[in-house]
Predict the structure.
Amino acid sequence: MFNVIIKPHWEIRHDSETAVDTTSLLALLTAIEHSGSIARAAKILGMSYRYAWGTLRDIEHSFGGPLISSGRGRGTTLTPLAKKFIWADRLIAARLSPTLESLASELETGLGTLVEGQSKVVRINASHGFAVAELLKQINAIQQPLELRYRPSTDAVAAFSRGECDLAGFHIPLGKFERPAFAHYKKWLNNRSDCLIHLTVRSQGLFVAPGNPKKIKGLADLLRSDLHFVGRQIGSGTRMLLELMLADAGIPIKKITGFDTAEFTHSAVAAFIASGMADVGFGVQTAAHRFGLAFIPLVRERYFFAVKSSALEDPLVRPVIDILQSAPFREVINGLAGYDGTDLGKILSCAEAFP
């Protein structure tokens, strides 16, 4: 089985100078940040001290500002310019990861068909999330042929109804917004032939800067003129949920600065705020945790995979269900900030899940 890995790559060119490949630079800056020393960072990366110092000086010359700062008793630290490089890389990765992972999966399928004669794979369409990403790792570990496509929940369930995938991931809030949210997906689900596999319960809420310096308390603050919001794309389950919550609170979305931005992952929203490009966003707790942000919980939701009842014992689908029902995978899910894997792998009819 072929495993294809595609990673973002970017370069910087200042005026007419030769473009700088950021790969080595970012590795060096990250190592300096963790070790507090150029010499130790160079040793970690297996490069000479002279080469590391020269790399830093070349970039500093191009941008007209320092990348590092040294002081007695505090070692070597990164300047705001250097930190901006690191945050830019994290934002690029957060934005592109769903597209690149989906493309990698397509290439794996194509190579498997051409070289190994592999014709059948389990097809998963799902909104991008941390539990789904962990599931992907587990599936790859057992070398299960897989075609993964990250797409908004609405598109995933619609594709499932057309027979374009075997499992479709989507999420529904608990509480007062459960009924209107499920009504959005219900038209694509058949009570007689479809069932749902429970993946997790997770927390969604507001992302704010560490320490919450702007004293944001809840949704009503999104109307403040001093706040810039970063949102998700139209069609995503998270955007639909937030729109339901705002309508219930009587908050007009047109008056929220930045609401029409369209980031495709929770991590991209978190990266925007962590880099200072926005003040507040909405998404799952794990993203806030991984980017060092403060989190204001607002709602819990359940994440499901829709699957045909007739496919539960399919030799391609069954290994995925076995992973979802395994104790080790439950431990992985419970290790994600804001995730609860108590009912992981539980199979329900639509009527049982939404009586």
Observations:
- The mean pLDDT is 90.
- Residues 80-115 form the longest helix (36 residues).
- The radius of gyration is 23 Å.
- Residues 90 and 271 are 7 Å apart (CA to CA).
